[in-house]
Amino acid sequence: MLHIVNKSPTQASALHSCLRLARPGHALLLIEDAVYAASRGAAASSALAQALKTLKVYVLQPDVAARGMSGRLLDGVTPIDYGGFVDLVAEHPNNQSWL
Questions:
Q1: Sign of the torsion angle spanned by Cα atoms 82, 77, 7, 40
Q2: Span 2-98: which CATH code?
Q3: Burial, 82: exposed, middle or buried (Cβ in 10 Å; 0-12, 13-18, 19+)?
Q4: 3-class DSSP state for residue 82?
């Protein structure tokens, strides 16, 4: 399953809910303001670092760049472009967008 989160973890509980319900082997894609969670030192970075032990975590690179976060991502988080986003959706027949 692919989980897609677009809200900042400081403004909504979507990421927290997603991490609580995601299962080992699932993938997580952070887009829009959710990419802040993947920044070293962010409030949600420890929860995300824990999730990296069982989930594959991706961030949308154009959103990272737009927020000035290039070079500040947690180790293990994989940046992808829009083509990679399409590939992830195609690879995972089940997708859950967290609002």
A1: negative
A2: 3.40.1260.10
A3: exposed
A4: helix
Is residue 96 within a helix (H) or strand (E), and if so which, with residue range? strand 95-98
**Residue 79, both tokens:** 């940046």
Q: What is the pLDDT of residues 29-81, one digit of tens each?
A: 999 999 999 998 888 888 999 999 999 999 999 999 999 999 999 999 999 99
Tokens 């032990």 sit on residue? 53
Token duo for residue 19: 């991490």
Residue listed under structure tokens 């989930």: 55
How many helices and strands, by DSSP H and E, does the chain display?
Answer: 4, 5
